[in-house]
Amino acid sequence: WSLFSWLISLEGLVVQRAECRPAVSENYMKLKRLQIEELSKPVRLSQQLEKAVTTNYKPVANHSYNVRSPLNNNNTGLILSVCVCPSVQLEYDRKKKEEGKRARVDKQQVLDMLFSAFEKHQYYNIKDLVDITKQPVSYLKEILRDIGIYNVKGTHKNTWELKPEYRHYQGGEEEEKETDD
């Protein structure tokens, strides 16, 4: 059954059988020769290049479905919508380019930023702390392991809080504790 079989139909009884052969002429032979030549050509050809290829194709790190759009900002990591409008993509690319790579700052400066952040709120997730400190995640986690506790379960799951000895610190005392470790 083909898609168009309902368009053309033929009914009846076969009375005589006929075989059709093309007239063997020069035009027909030329047509057949061209058909055979086309079919005998390989689909893919390899060719030797005169000079090295200099175009560098870089992999795309953030496809449109990875971009956190306002639709996808649900903090669960689940993507609610695959299509992201171009303006959101352009804004994301512009912001990413402005920030560039995060460079490590002196540990004491990061500690000061973290302590001032934890004065405002008791619990932070790693993403918010990265936004506050503008530090690489691995470096930030390394520092947080020294001064903080990572909550694995409970109401504040997947958040960081300060260790009890760092909680209600007075400016000068805290720096002394850090240098002693």
Topology:
Layout lengths: L25 H15 L45 H14 L7 H14 L5 H8 L3 H11 E4 L7 E4 L8 H10 L1
Antiparallel strand pairs: 1-2
Protein name: General transcription factor IIF subunit 2
Subcellular location: Nucleus
Pfam families: TFIIF_beta
Q: How would you describe this protein?
A:
- This protein has 181 residues and is mainly alpha-helical.
- Helix content is 40%, strand content 4%.
- It contains 6 helices and 2 strands; from the N terminus they run H-H-H-H-H-E-E-H.
Using DSSP, what is the number of strands? 2
Strand content: under 5%
Poorly predicted residue ranges: 69-84, 170-181
Oligomer: single chain
Q: For the report, how would you describe the main beta sheet?
A: 2 strands, antiparallel
**SSE run:** HHHHHEEH
Q: Helices and strands: which structural class?
A: mainly alpha
First-residue to last-residue Cα separation: 81 Å
The number of helical elements comes to 6
* Fraction of helical residues: 25-40%
**What general outline do the C-alpha atoms trace?**
elongated
What number is the mean pLDDT?
Answer: 77
Strand order of the largest sheet: 1-2
Radius of gyration: 35 Å
Features:
two-stranded antiparallel ribbon; 181 residues; single chain; disordered C terminus; elongated; mainly alpha; 4% strand
